[in-house]
Amino acid sequence: MYAVIMEGCCKNGNVEKAVEVYMQIKLAGIKSNAFVENSLINGYLSVNLLDEAMNVFDEAINSGTANVFIYNSIITWVSKKGRMDGAKKVWDKIVDNGVLPTITSYNNVILGNCRDGNMDKALDLFSQLPERQLKANVVT
Fold first, then answer.
1. What b/e string do you get for 36-54 counting C-beta neighbours within 10 Å, with b at 16 or more?
2. CA 97 – CA 59 distance, rounded (Å)
C-alpha cells in the first residue's frame, strides 16, 4: 500500500508527500524494496534533486535491494544531463556489485557518450554487447 501511494505521489509531482510516506515506512520498521526506492529516486530526479536521489540509491545498494532498474534510473538521468562522470561512477557500481546491465543500461551510456563527443567510449560499449549476450535494438 505504501509503495502504491509513493508511486502516485511521485507521478503527480508531490515528492514531498512521497518522502513523508517513505519516512513512515522506515519508522514502522517495514523493510523497503526496489519498487519503493526506485519510485522515490525517480521522484527526486523529476525535480532535479540528484543528491537526494543518490542518497536513496546508496541506501538501496547498502541494503541489497538495488536492482538494474534502480541503476538504470540514475544512469538515464545523469546521461541525459550530460554528466558522464556520474554515469561512469554508477556504471562502475553496476559492475562492482555484480548487477547485469541491460540493453537499456547500455543504450543510455552509449547515447550519453555520443552526446559528450566520446565516440571511442560509445563504440567500446557497443562492442561489448555480444559478449554480454545483448542485442542492439533500434534505440542502440
1. bbbbbbbbbbeeeebebbb
2. 14
Beta strands in 2-135 (DSSP E): none
Residue 72 in this model has a pLDDT that exceeds 90 = yes
Residue 51 CA to residue 29 CA, distance in Å, equals: 24
Which set of grid coordinates corresponds to residue 44?
Answer: 527526486
pLDDT surpasses 90 at 61: yes
Please report where in the chains the cell 507521478 appears, as a residue.
11
Give the C-alpha separation, 91 to 100, whole Å: 10
CA–CA separation, 49 vs 138, rounded Å?
31
CB atoms within 10 A of CB 33: 15
Q: In this model, does residue 11 exceed pLDDT 90?
A: no
pTM summary value: 0.88
How many alpha carbons lie under 13 Å from residue 4 in its C-beta half-sphere?
1
13, pLDDT greater than 90:
no
